[in-house]
Amino acid sequence: MGKGRLEAFSDGVIAIIITIMVLELKVPHGADFAALQELLPVFCSYVLSFIYVGIFWNNHHHLLHASTVVDGRVLWANLHLLFWLSLVPFTTGWMGENQFAPLPVALYGAMLFMSAIAYTMLEKALIVCNPSDAVVTMALTKERKGIASAVMYLLAVPAAFLHVWLSFILYVLVAILWFLPDRRIEARFKS
Fold first, then answer.
1. What is the pTM of this model?
2. Taking 70 as the threshold, does the pLDDT of residue 110 lie above it?
């Protein structure tokens, strides 16, 4: 079956996720820098989450662009990914509102870990569904960045209870790692 509806649905869900996140940003009560300073944790968690949603959307776009067909397994794998991404506004808000307390920061990492697992499951479903000469099948052979990301997310969960900034640093490092789209797919389109 074609992939157009899957792409449109996913884009819509991701747009709603970003909309919910931005609506959670409250206007400060005051017109000075002190009023803004109180909102700094909320804003920082929003920026980090916006970047993460952008990274997932960007790589999701490349992944589907490289695919020729989808099947029922891909549809369910995609819904699995969207489920975990739909928790981004909740975990972001909880983390920011509680000024990076250990449990919300750990839950944020668990949500990112499960999103990464779901994304990997979507990749695997697309590989099975597409012919062996499809770009997605040929490009997704080595998964070093994905494994490294999942390991860092997993480490960030218990690290939040030791020192929350260790977790935050790991989240930023993974975001930096994925800031550019998956080069394995882009390289296949250039050759």
1. 0.90
2. yes
